[in-house]
Amino acid sequence: MSILSVENLCKNYGQVQALKGVSFSVPRGTVFGILGPNGSGKTTLLGIIMDILKPTSGSYNLFDATPDETYRRKIGTFLETPNFYHYLSAQKNLEIAAALKERGAQDIPRVLDLVNLTQRKDSRFSTYSLGMKQRLAIASCLLGDPEVLILDEPTNGLDPVGIAEIRQLIKQLHQQGKTIIMASHLLDEVEKVCTHVAILKKGNLVAAGDVNEILANEDIVEIGATDMKQLAAIVTSMQGHSNIKNQDKIIQLFYPIGTADVESINKHCFNSGVVLNHLQLKKKSLEAKFFELTN
Amino acid sequence: MIKLLKVEWMKIRSYNAFIVISAFFAVGVFASNYLAYSFKKNVIDPADPTGLISAGSPFGFPNVWQTVSYYSGLMLLLPGLLLLILVTNEFTYRTHRQNIIDGISRNQFTQVKLLMGVIAALVSTLLVFIAVLLFGLLVNTGSFSFSGIVNIWYFFLKALTYNFIAILIGVLVRRTGFAIAVFFIYSVLENGISILLLVWAINIKKNNNIDLGNMGNYLPMNAADGLLYSPFDSFTNMANKFLPSDYTWLVFLLAIIYLALFYFWSQQRMLKSDL
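Output (structure tokens, whole complex):
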């Protein structure tokens, strides 16, 4: 069963096409990253799924069914900005959210504790800092322990400790078998947290699938030596690589996935009279992939 | 819907503007009537001992139903203002999105606001009912009578019209300050246009002898207003002989049609647009 599936979703804002026929599905139990630069359509996509935006065309399903408000209650969603009543306290705002979701009223102390807001629970929302507002929004998502969470840039505005805490929390929730759909423009975040990824570029879906499949389609071996010129000369006689990139203090050798043999590279260099001072096998970094895909 | 009403109550019960505006309205209902009562007693009565102008006893039964409903009606911009702020607050705080994300439908979002409009109208009407009893029985001691109670119903209709107009403007305009300005400017503008229409109707009656009724009362706010007028405004009463006749049934029908129109317009706006 898929938690969410979108089918050929299009959205126009006047002349601007924010989504141009996007289709993918989110399997149960995954941490699904929706990755794209600013303005690529991530929030628009999630807004349509939550029925606050109307799609120009296309359709979507939640839990394999045509969605209505009762499906939204089963999902903890945080979209774009923390939206709360400024004149009410965190406690009262969460009471309202729990009443609308029809669950989680007894859960309020637990979620406040999870995001470290228990001490400030009776302060008005308007007195909160950006990071605290963000944490309250995440607390609201966790009300009633939902099976599915949709988080739009959840670490925006948080300090480094806060960011680490949220990522840890997402990993914990994943271990408990929950499905998390997370939009982000932070490559590093998706790489660290997600099991699956869909990459959006100007409203088009560029790639979607398992993080390891999408990201690591090449092995990269980085080598370095004191005499870079000689090293550059001898790598040309090596076999099996698909590409070579000379950088300042290292040379990158690209191999089809699973074919890089680090040992034989080392042996070849040593036999050719070059002693390596740097030898490392890397999967292709998400950042490199991201730039390649979106530029 | 009970659940949603409870949520609305959670939103407003500790909202300062709600408490202040409600208090102003409650005090205003009694104060405006007392002012009229005091003016009648201290200014009109000494000048007009025979009761020629003041048309009898406006604060005794059965006239008191009409008098109190009329003067309380002057305060109805206040609950309208309150509902308008409650609607635009949702847009300001973007909680209209969050409410829908958390699990209500777009339909329910407007329905509960309109229902709040009905409840506010009912509460205002109850307040007026109490004011009638207070003035009719205590201030102006006399015997009780149900005759003229239809004015309470007209008051309810007027309150509902004001509230629905306010909610509609809130849903259409979304920004608090701008919406309040539109609400007040609209109420003034409509009165102005209504006077022009009345003058036009008088001319048509005079020149062509065709009685189209008081066309000023055919506009939304004035349709609701037109059902209620001051009983001791004897100048209007006298002038009415020369004015086009007021088709109460038509004005009443229009008031109901406007209410339905505002209801569906607010609904449609929330159903169709991006939030």
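The radius of gyration of chain A is 23 Å.
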